[in-house]
Amino acid sequence: MTVMCLTQLHVGGLVAVGVDPSGRYLLTISHSGRGVFDSSTWDRIARDTDLAYPVDGEAVGIGPLEGQTIPVKEIDYDTSTLTDTVVGPFVVSYTEGDVIVKSAGTQPIVAPSRRDD
After folding, report:
1. Which residues partner with 47 through β-bridges?
2. Which of 22, 28, 34 is nearest to 9 (CA)?
3. E-only strand ranges, the chain
4. Domain ranges, residue 63
5. 85: left (phi over 0), alpha (psi -120 to 50) or beta
6. What percent of the chain lies above the pLDDT cut of 70?
């Protein structure tokens, strides 16, 4: 299996990450609120500073995901990291404010970029 790095996003205080059913939108939940990134450009397209932590592995979306319940993967609270966790069509890692998004398979390689959340 080939794993390709798609992007690097800066999200301080990440708590959880999820992807909508279409695989287009990446939802991040942090201690500073929620953000939504469009996986076709990796631009942040929605931001909300209201705290809305996940409950039972699910979080409520914002922006294009408004009102949708999105399954999420939470960080390891002992280490504050997420290590090569499958989230929808992506493999996601998190450490020290950096979310690394990779894809397994044949998607085209997109130059890694760093975005602030």
Report:
1. 35
2. 28
3. 3-10, 14-19, 25-30, 33-38, 44-48, 58-60, 69-74, 82-87, 90-95, 98-104, 114-116
4. 3-116
5. beta
6. 85
Residue 47 has pLDDT above 50, yes or no: yes
Which of 19, 18, 16, 20 shows the shortest CA–CA distance to 33? 16
Can you read off the two tokens belonging to residue 28? Answer: 């991040």
CA-to-CA dists, residue 42 to 9, 14, 35, 49, 87, angstroms: 8, 17, 11, 19, 16
Residue 5, pLDDT score: 86
Q: Where are the alpha helices (DSSP H) in the chain?
A: none
The whole-angstrom separation of Cα 37 and Cα 2 is 23
pLDDT greater at residue 98 or residue 117? 98
Say yes or no to pLDDT of 20 above 50: yes
pTM of the model: 0.86
Scan for tokens 């760093």, then name that residue.
114
Domain count, the chain: 1
Q: In what order do the strands lie in the sheet with 98-104?
A: 82-87, 90-95, 98-104, 3-10, 114-116
Q: How far apart are CA 41 and CA 110, in angstroms?
A: 9
